[in-house]
Write a structure and sequence with these properties.
Number of domains: 2
Structural class: alpha+beta
Strand order of the largest sheet: 2-1-4
Number of strands: 5
Largest sheet: 3 strands, mixed
Distance between the termini: 87 Å
């Protein structure tokens, strides 16, 4: 399995991307290094199994930048050293993996279809929980009400 870290910092100017890359590399190499920024960042670990392909959605990004992003992702995936296994962007994008081969379709998104018996059991448990909760609520309601004496004149 190949992995890399996607670092998205959409608020920084393009001129700051290289500086952020340098600081992240320093933080990887030195565990005592603390990375402090005055802008929002998001770190996402991207995993790619050998039988999967990567899909990259970079909406609104110019074509030349998309080509550059593809090369940077390929370099990060192929990198041997941990300090080279990341990509810094000053825009948002979505990167995910999906199977190339239909025989591996069950791994798409990491979710497998449940067995019918599992689904039935889960449904029965939810129904029992609803019945118990309803019964408890009715008991509380009944306990809170007092019977009013009949008024006979």
């Amino acid at each position: 399995m190949s992995t890399f870290t996607l670092v998205e910092a959409p608020q920084i100017p393009t001129s700051e991307v290289k500086a952020l890359e340098k600081h992240i590399r320093e933080a990887i190499l030195d565990t005592d290094y603390i990375l402090v920024t005055n802008y929002e960042m998001q770190f996402t670990v991207i995993e790619k199994l050998p039988f999967q392909m990567l899909v990259v959605n970079a909406n609104g990004v110019p074509y030349s930048e998309v080509l550059d992003l593809r090369k940077r992702v390929e370099v990060a995936l192929a990198a041997e050293k941990a300090e080279d296994k990341f990509v810094v962007l000053n825009y948002e994008c979505l990167i995910y993996s999906m199977p190339q081969n239909p025989s591996h379709a069950e791994s798409y998104g990491g979710i497998a279809d449940p067995e019918p018996e599992e689904t039935k059991l889960g449904h029965e448990e939810v129904e029992a929980l609803i019945r118990n909760t309803f019964a408890e609520l009715m008991e509380e309601k009944d306990a809170g009400e007092t019977e009013e004496p009949d008024e006979e004149d």
